[in-house]
Design brief:
By secondary structure, the chain is of the alpha/beta class. It has seven helices and five strands; from the N terminus they run αβαβααβββααα. A five-stranded mixed beta sheet has the order 1-2-3-4-5, sandwiched between helices.
Length: 178
C-alpha cells in the first residue's frame, strides 16, 4: 500500500505501534523506503534497529536515539525520522537537518490520562508539515497537542485547537533541555 501511494505521488507518514514481539525487524524495514515521515518512540526505534535506546534503569540513551534515527534514515526513510519519548523528541532529516524539542511540564493534577498522546503529537506535527511550517514549529505544535491530550482520559477529547496548543508552553514551560 505504501509503495502504491508513493508511486501515485502521495506523501506518506507512518506511526509505529508498540508491541512486545520480535516482528519489528521482520515487518518494518521493507516498508521504510516508502515512508516520508516516520514516527517512532524510543522502544520502537530500538526494536527496529537493534540499537539499545533505553538503559537498564529505563532512562533514554539520547546518543543511541540519534544513532537509531540515522539508521532508520539509512534503511530508507525518505524525509524525516521523528523519534519521541516522555522527555521530548528529536527529528532528523535525510538531508542532515536535526531538531530537539523538550516536552511540556504538565502538572500531575492536570493529567487525566495519556491515551492518545502519541497520536496527538503526530497529528500536531503533521498539521505543521501540511501548513508548510519548519520542523521546529511542527515539533512545538506536536508537543503542545500531546500535552493537551493529557487533560482528558479519552484519546482525543482533550486536544485543543493549534493556537491553544502552542500557548501551553507559556503556561507550563518545557522540561529541561534534552
Amino acid at each position: 500500500m505504501l509503495k502504491s501511494a508513493k508511486q501515485h505521488g502521495l506523501i506518506t507518514s507512518v506511526d509505529i505501534v508498540s508491541e512486545r514481539s520480535d516482528r519489528f525487524k521482520d515487518v518494518i524495514p521493507s516498508s521504510l523506503p516508502y515512508i516520508d515521515y516516520l514516527f517512532v518512540n524510543e522502544y520502537e526505534a530500538g526494536m527496529i534497529t537493534g540499537i539499545k535506546t533505553i538503559n537498564d534503569n529505563g532512562s533514554i540513551i539520547l546518543k543511541s536515539c540519534y544513532d537509531a534515527a540515522l539508521k532508520l534514515l539509512a534503511l530508507g526513510v525518505n524525509k524525516w525520522v521523528i523519534l519521541h519519548f516522555p522527555e521530548g523528541v528529536i527529528a532528523i532529516s535525510k538531508s542532515g537537518e536535526s531538531h530537539r524539542q523538550p516536552s511540556l511540564l504538565v502538572p500531575a493534577d492536570k493529567v487525566a490520562g495519556a491515551s492518545g498522546a502519541g497520536d496527538a503529537f503526530a497529528a500536531g506535527v503533521l498539521m505543521g508539515i501540511h501548513n508548510d511550517k519548519d520542523m521546529s514549529y511542527c515539533l512545538e505544535l506536536g508537543v503542545g497537542a500531546a500535552a493537551s491530550s493529557l487533560f482528558e482520559s479519552t484519546s482525543s477529547d482533550g486536544v485543543l485547537p493549534s493556537e491553544e496548543c502552542l500557548k501551553l508552553a507559556a503556561l507550563y514551560g518545557y522540561r529541561e533541555a534534552i
